[in-house]
Design goal:
The chain is mostly helical. It has one domain (15-100). The chain contains three helices and no strands. The chain has helices at 17-81, 83-87, 89-100. The longest helix has 65 residues, at 17-81. The radius of gyration is 38 Å and the shape is rod-shaped. Keywords: Coiled coil.
Length: 101
């Protein structure tokens, strides 16, 4: 190269083919880096969207699981409050005592 590459404007008298080629290469490198960065950004945005979808699905599963758990809990409470559960309590206690022996 015949002279240093400056980042400022180039005067017509300073332009030679080697300097021009060096500037073109720098611009191409910057353009390539920008394209790679943009490509990485697009991939990251896709990954974020996929993860957000996964979070939404998992949140819905948690809500469904909690509803199921609440329903089972209500059924157990209803069973324990029923007459048949109270009437059979002595039999369950006797079975527990016999099982320990």
């Amino acid at each position: 190269m015949s002279g240093p590459i400056s980042s400022g404007p180039i005067k017509a008298s300073q332009i030679n083919q080697a300097d021009l080629l060096a500037h073109v290469r720098l611009l191409q490198d910057a353009l390539d880096a920008s394209a790679q960065t943009e490509s990485s950004l697009v991939r990251a945005e896709r990954q974020i969207a996929a993860l957000q979808d996964q979070v939404e699905r998992m949140s819905a599963q948690i809500v469904d699981g909690q509803r199921h758990c609440d329903a089972v809990e209500r059924e157990m409470e209803a069973l324990r409050a029923s007459l048949s559960w109270r009437v059979t309590a002595p039999l369950r206690a006797l079975r527990g005592m016999l099982a320990r022996k």
